[in-house]
## 1
Amino acid sequence: MFIESIKKFGAAPEQLCTKEIQAAIDACASSGGGEVIIEDGRYITGTLFLHSYVTLVIRENAVLRASGNGEDYPDFDTYWGKENAPRKTARCLVYAEDCEHIAITGGGTIDCSGSAFCEPYEDTGIRFWRRITDKLPARMIFFYNCRNVSVRDITMLEMAGGWAYWINGCDFVTVDRIRILCNPHYPNSDGVHINCCSDVTVSNSTINCGDDAIILRANNKTMQKKRSCSRISVTNCTLSSQSNAIRIGWTNDGLIENCTFSNLVVTDSWYGISIEFPKKPEQPFTDQGDDFTEVRNLLFDNIILSRISTSPIQILAYPYNQVKSIEHISFRGLISDSRQLPVFRVEKGVRVSDISLSDCEFTSDDISALRFENISRVHMQNVTFGCRDD
């Protein structure tokens, strides 16, 4: 089995090493697979392409740092049609397509160089950050149509204007013991985005980011054939987000089913758990699908939600979306401290049924505002509500 340090291919710390690291990956793949070792220093790179049976090992004493030059992230052509991807680009830091048995591991760090792509500005006295270029990795790690994928023991820092992980159309994926840590005000800094996948586990991880922390979607625009998002498990994680800690679905997704979220701690987030199909925007979203949406058989179990700025749970669906049904959604063992109570509001004509809450405690500023609009069969058992002391 091939096991070789990128140094053997000429990579040197504090220098742009895209060609040298890629040469090591290519040599590993040509030898039948193995490990490409990044160790002893900080190595700067643009886009890298993984191949089947290759493991990228970033040691604890190493940092893979994203180049701050947007020209180092080519907008390469794809057979699946990058014009159908969010932001209509394929730019990324690490890309794997149609691969199997691939991994990124080793205990080291991926530094995404966020401040190179964003700048601060103020609006009504509030400080925000915005992208200053479109030539940036819209995703840091991007897996497309891959099987048997593993990401373990990796810390990712400072994504800006791009998602940490886009796992798109993949099967049998393990994400374990990762950390995602970035400036919470960076734009579009999503955590783990899982789209049209099956048999994915995210566990024992910490995700603190500016945009949605965990996302499940079934947007088939980039798929070669229709796929659902199913058999997803998220467990033993801590989440924080300036948007949604957990987001399920978006405009005109397909089928999302049979997923569990358990043993989670959610803090300092705008929303806790969001199943949202939004109102019609002024211009179409760049990441909307074209399917009829079904969401069913989701379990949220044993979750602490603390310092939630709005609602701990929201289920929203508006006519702009092609939502057929949202059903059999269970919330069990939730302890929540938030400004608002859960919100369950859908327009007439959307079938939403069998929403269950059991053994839950909700503390908020206003306990009179719990709403269930146009929802049939709401089941509540041992659910308590209380006002916050402050």
Note: The first strand starts at residue 2 and ends at 5.
## 2
Amino acid sequence: MTNFTFNSSEDLKIFLKDNKFNKILIISGEKSYKLSGADKIINELLVNKNIKYFFKKFAYPDLLELKKIIKEINLFVPDLIIAIGGGSVLDYAKIANVLAYSENLEQEISTSSYKIRDKFTKLVAIPTTAGSGAEVTSNAVIYINKIKYSVEGEKLKPDFFFLIPELVIAASYKIKASAGFDAIAQAMESLISKKSNNESVNFAEKSLKISLKYYLDFLNNPNKDNTSAMCLAANLSGKAISISKTTAPHAVSYPFTSIYNISHGHAVSLTLNKFLQFNFENIKNSNCNFSLKDRYQIMFDVSKTDSIESFDKYLFNLKKKAKLENDFIKLGIDLKKDYSKIISGVNILRLSNNPVELKKEDLKEIILK
């Protein structure tokens, strides 16, 4: 595994003491805050501090709750925000720290006319899942009327992050499986994104080498080593997509989350194979400034496969072993019946990053395949 220094509760204690923060807003999920063990660690560190908690209620980041967080920040006026949780918690904190409250926030975000201000205060990100790498990305997700939008800008990046494996290991199997696969999918999508470059490829390849080695062990026999490995894989995949952004599988995943309540990484897994196969079969039609074939070769090499067919089978088996249901019918999804509803929630911006241009008829054929 790549040399990397992981954090401990002691590192966090030293950080809080050295920086003399007094008014601290903690954003988290109430259930995950306790299950991860964060409550015990954090509460001990924050004695004699003025603390305010905001526990999110929504399963995914929603505009209505975001407005409440922005109001809370303005009322409490913290000198530090600690976001401790999964990608949704971190995304809430990142956006709330750079957008001013506005009655027109819905329109501003949906039309990308929002104005990113200077950060309200310092932000610390502490992930309790090994998945999105949101602690190092310059974008965040928000849903408005069940449609996903992105807020992007360098100021969204947290000022500090702590990777504390002991907070991740206690997550449920289901959360680990979904979040871990998100890290895998992000790295794969980053490799073939039109916006990728040498730096993002380096991050993505390192991430994949780690995640594909440790993912299943992390699910079935979690320990400090494989949990630390997956935390690093997620962090590296976050660094990769912060540069390259994601592609079609992520773009199509959001309606599956907002409409059918399928967790994010699981939702991405539903179409990853299909889009990877489509892009490979249409390499001659790719529109990117790199060799798409070479990028696929990286994925073949890391997964120890030698063709798109064996790679497809490898991914399918990986999902099966991780107990990520791949059958839409079993998930209660009628693709033909609900296609219009699903496609209306697709993030068009992410589709534009796909290495092969996707026409409406392509999209429909791929999804219904």
Note: The beta strands are 23-29, 50-56, 80-85, 122-127, 139-144, 147-152, 160-161.
## 3
Amino acid sequence: MILKLKICLLLTVSVFFLFSAGCGKQDRTDAVTQQNSVIAGSLTDKTLAAYQSKLLNLAFETASAIPATPHIKDRSRAQEKVVTTSLELDQPRRALDLIERIDNWRRGAGYCDLAFYYARHGYANEAQQYLNLAVETSESAEDWRRDQIRVKIASTYTLLRQTLQADQFETGVADSESGKVAGVKAMIAGEDYFDEQMNALDALIAPGNFDIVENALKACANLFNRFYDDAGRRLMAEDKIKTSWGKLPVFKRIELLTELAGFALDHADQAKALELVNEAQFLMDSAKWPPEYRISLISKLVRLRFLAGDRQKARTEADALLALFDSQRNKIVDISRAGALRPLAEAYQSMGDTAAALAIYKRAVEEGVENPNSRPRAEDLSATCCSMALHGVEPDAELWARILQINKELGDPW
């Protein structure tokens, strides 16, 4: 399927000029041409199983059923989730079609994600086209939302090794976004730039700003991955994370350890992955958690533990989490139950137990309709469809019928 969209191509001004305070909207309109259209690159969507495609379509349809007024934020966030899932499944053309149906600033964020996808796959021209669209779409966004988009734009320019443009878009963003581009720099850092990158991260960490420290430590995790085969540098990156995370809450530390464990598995280092999983498990066990948080976080560790070779314990922990849900279900707010079950279903699927995964997805679908309002029902159903598509769990006839029924019955009250 060929997807066409109208875009404006910049002629005599840079993309950054579009953000400058002294440039009015009419000036920008005069600086572009309206007569060109762009076809979504030369990348094609990866072939999916028919059920995966159907799940993605249904996920977006369900998200889009949420009324824009007054629920534009929830609607667009749910739609964006389908876009990111599509890109994870290597569906850039599908993603583009969905992005264009998002009605608020998240459309610009979607163009950024698509640009980053194309840049990562070596399609610089297409990446630039979607960066241009991101700028056009984001001009009316509020400052903090525009900053999110600017950092995404800067990240793609960094991946494209266009340093000047990256710096222009990153300059002056809010603290919550500062330091995120460093993560992309770490991904592509050359052998001679490790020390420079570490020094730059030290400078970000030193003031102690919570958001900046978190972003810097995520960048440090990318250095851990980028230089994994260099044991000395890898250890330096890991130590930097663990000696600098003092101000981060425990769940943020667990997230970092989980990411490091995933990187270790990417490098076929099961022993290191299991070591990191055990560290994260220790942190989990050292604090008290609401059951929904415990189930969600440990489910991710279960998956990593299984892949790291500790299969029996992974299965035992997964079964314990399911028992925990059963025993604590009534203490979990209804809108949080499906969200607790989805990661557990994903864990069972990663262990090769599709039957158990399917049974838990069925429960998640039912838990998602406990709330009488259609908005949370739609959000949960869309998220569950995305999860099944991404993790390769095909609904049986019974589940298909139930999913379609829930989708059909969405309506007032929202």
Note: Residues 1-39+105-174 form one domain.
